[in-house]
Amino acid sequence: NPEILTKAASNLVEEGEELAKNASFEAAVDKLKKAQQLDANIDLNPQTEELDNAPKVVAGKLTAPFLVHQGKRLVMMNHEVKEAIVAYNKSLKIAPNLQISAADWYKLCWYGSLNNHAKDVMFACEKTVAAVKSPNIGFRKGARGLARTLSGDYKGAIEDFEAFVKWTDNSKEKSQRQ
């Protein structure tokens, strides 16, 4: 009965979505593939306007933001820097077009540096600075300055701290901090 198959496929899509949102990427992909086996024309992500029919892409789009959130929690609350880095990197692996915000990169940079992993999180510090296109970048440079200091890049740290001090002297920029 095609109607029963369509309903079963829809249920599998819902299960796949829940798995993806809980960082079970591989299990989500499996559920979405099974849904396609039951209904070749099923939309794997009914929340979007376009027809989504790529299980890995759909699962990645749903799982990746959760992994970034998980990474932030790991670094901020548990001080598990290496595990946080793994979560961020996995999010980009499964969703290469994911746009991680400057604020999210900042958290990995700042808390990673504070927890003796400045060299390990330097890539996040660079990304937080690169992600901000406005003149009030001083806030982000302050975090990178900390990481540079702890990594032994004193010249780079001085440049960043000078930008940070200049930023703190500008009350308009501070109030618009991103």
The amount of beta strand, in percent, is under 5%
Name the average pLDDT. Answer: 91
The residue fraction in helices comes out at over 70%
Total beta strand runs:
0
Order of helices and strands: HHHHHHHHH
Largest sheet: none
Tally of individual helices:
9
Q: Between the first and last Cα atoms, what is the distance in angstroms?
A: 55 Å
In one word, what is the shape? Answer: elongated
The stretches of 5 or more residues where confidence is low (pLDDT under 50) are none
* Quaternary status: single chain
- Report the structural category: mainly alpha
- As a whole number of angstroms, the C-alpha radius of gyration is 21 Å
Structural commentary:
The chain has 178 residues and is mostly helical. The protein has 9 helices and no strands. The protein is elongated and about 70 Å long. The chain starts with a helix and ends with a helix. The model has no long low-confidence stretch (mean pLDDT 91).
Output the keywords.
178 residues; mainly alpha; 9 helices; 74% helix
Short description:
The chain is mainly α and 178 residues long. The chain contains nine helices and no strands. The N and C termini lie far apart (55 Å).
How are the secondary structure elements laid out?
Layout: H1 2-21, H2 25-38, H3 55-77, H4 81-94, H5 102-114, H6 118-131, H7 138-151, H8 154-168, H9 171-175
Helix pairs in contact: 1-2, 1-3, 2-3, 3-4, 3-5, 5-6, 5-7, 6-7, 7-8
